Each structure stands twice: as structure tokens, then as C-alpha cells.
Amino acid sequence: MADEHITSGTTKESDTTPAKKSGNGKRKRAALILLILFVAACLFGLQLWIKSKTHVETDNAFIESHVYSISARVPGHVLRVMVQDNQFVKKGDLLVELDPVDYNLKVLNANAQLDMAKNETSSTYAQVDAAKAALNSDRARLEQADLDLRRGRALYKKEVIAKEQLDRLETARKIAAARLAETEGSVRRALALLGLTGSGAKDAVIAQKIAELETSKRNLSYTRIYAPTDGFITKKSVEQGNNIQAGQPLMALVALEGAWVTANYKESQLTYVRPGQKVEFEVDTYPGITFNGKVDSIMAGTGASFSLLPPENATGNYVKVVQRIPVKILIDTTSDPNHLLRVGMSVVPTILTERKLGDILKDPFR
């Protein structure tokens, strides 16, 4: 009986020992797993923290591009409209043609006015030449009258001629002087009519008519409206048969070649953002596709400063609000060869500041 008791006691002790070892092993494994998870979480958190310092991201960003407002420079009747909404056009393509009949008539009229001005000016030149010739003739007559008067006075002193003949010579001299003065006035009137000065001739009438002719030709060329650049037609509001006015918007042309992203970053995010840094961004329309670009410039002020009603922080109670500053990001054309991007699309850009790990770890101690 004693042997059996001893044997049963030994068996119980041997059964509990492996159970304790097994429980300790499970706790150690659980602790090890927790430690590994903690370390992984720390590493993952550190990685996210470092990425937040090297990758500056925002979802307040949109695609923009140059938008050309197409309008007429002269009023007229629309003869033809050559494009449709969302059509792609190239620079120099004809968009709208106005009826050119009225402007052709104005060109013909300006040509006729110019020819008349040239003829009138030629006649005035002839009058000037005739007046100058008469002036020279009258000067010669006055000189001859002066000479005859001097001779007559000398002969009268010698009593060779009578007093009556001397009076006639004096009268002839006065008549010649008066005629010369009248001719000089005629020359001045002819020169004034022609628009001439003493230093040189300027045909003001012909110059004016030439300017009017060039203006008419230019207005005629404005009846054909061409595309200023490559792009897509949008907001077309003109149709054949419409009567339009100068400056009236007819359509818009969106150029997608030079598109860019305007990203409104918080002011606290732009500490290490510089022009030239690489940018990666995703577009809501095309999930899974990453486009590339680079920082072009940072706006000189916050968006609120240039709003229609900028804030007046000097009045009333002040509540600090984190401001946003627009950043212009140029799009790499090689990442969008098919022009998938359109103006106004929402994007999520990430700027790669390329900061070094050592500089990032120093931030908490500054």
C-alpha cells in the first residue's frame, strides 16, 4: 500500500511540472509576439512620421490651365461657325467668319478717298509752284522798278526828264511792291493749304487717308476669327446668323498643353517646400494612376489676402485660423501624353522635400 501511495504521489508531481512549463512557454511566446508587434508599430509610426516630414500632401488642389476668351474685334453678322463644343483645334484654325461685304465696301471707299487726296494734293502742289513762279517774277519787276526810279531821279536832278516822268517811275515802283506783297500772300496760302512748313513738306491729307485705308483693311481681316493656340473649344455661345458686337464673348478655348496644379497648402506645411522639388499626384477621376510634376512657384500671399473681402483682423475679436497659400505645380507632359487631365479636376499632390533623416530627427529638439 505504501508503495502504491509513493508511486501515485510521484506521478502527480510529474504531471504538473510539464503543465507549468507549457503555460510559461505560451506566456513567453505571447510576450514575444506583443513585443514584435510593438516594435513593428513603432517602426511603422516612425516611418509615417518621417514621411510626413519629407512628403507634404494636401487634398485641396485642382488642375488649372490657360483659358482664352474668343471674341470679335468688330461687330457684324455671323456667316459661318466652323467648330463645335469640345472640339480640338490647332493654332491658326478658322473658328468664326463674319460677313465681309460691309468691310469690303469700306476698303473700296478708303481707296477712292486716297486717290482723291492724291489728286487734290497734286493740284495744290501746282498752285504752290505757280505762286512761287509769280513771286520770282514780281521780285524781278520790283528790282527793275527800283533801278528805273534811281535812274529817273538822277536824270531829274540834271533836268533831263520832266517831273511827270519821275512821278510815273515812283508810281510804277509802288505798284510793283504791292504786287510782290500780294504774291507772297498767295504763296503762304498755298503752303498752308498743302500743310507744309518752311523746314520740309508733310502731306498730312494723304497720310490721313492712308491711315484710314489701313484701318479699313485691318477691320476686314477681323471678320475672320482664328484660334490663338492649340486647345479644346468650350462654352460656345455663337451660331450662324447671329449679330454680334465687338468684344462679345463667343466661346472659350482651353489649352491643355501648359496645364498646372494649384495646391492650397496650409502655411505650416510649406516650411521646407522650394521651387523645383518633385511632385507626385493622383487624380480622383483616374484612381491608381500617378502623375508627376514639379513645384514651379509659391504665391506671394495667402488666398484670403486676395479674396474679394479680405479679413480685417484688426477689428473685433481675433480667432487664429491656419491660412492656406497656393502653390503652382507644373505637370510633366510625359506623364499625361493623352491629355487625360482636364481643368477643374480634383487632385491630391505630394511634394517630395527630399530632407535628410538627420535633419528630421533634430526637429523635436529645436
Gyration radius (Cα, Å) is: 49 Å
Compressed to H and E, one letter per element, the order equals HEEEEEHHHEEEEEEEEH
How large is the count of helical segments?
5
Uncertain runs are 197-202
The CATH architecture classification of the largest domain is Beta Barrel
| CATH topological fold name of the largest domain | OB fold (Dihydrolipoamide Acetyltransferase, E2P)
| Spatial shape | elongated
Q: How many strands, which pairing sense, and closed or not: the largest β-sheet?
A: 9 strands, antiparallel
Helix content: 40-55%
Question: Overall pLDDT, averaged?
Answer: 83
Report what the structure shows.
With 366 residues, the chain is α+β, with helices and mostly antiparallel strands. It has helices spanning 2-54, 101-157, 163-194, 204-221, 357-362, and strands spanning 55-57, 61-71, 76-81, 88-89, 94-98, 224-226, 231-234, 243-244, 249-266, 278-283, 286-298, 324-331, 347-352. It has two domains: 55-99 and 227-365, OB fold (Dihydrolipoamide Acetyltransferase, E2P) (Beta Barrel), CATH 2.40.50.100; 106-200. The chain contains five helices and 13 strands. Strands 1, 2, 4, 7, 9, 10, 11, 12 and 13 form a nine-stranded antiparallel β-sheet that branches. The two termini are 81 Å apart. The model is unreliable at 197-202 (pLDDT under 50).
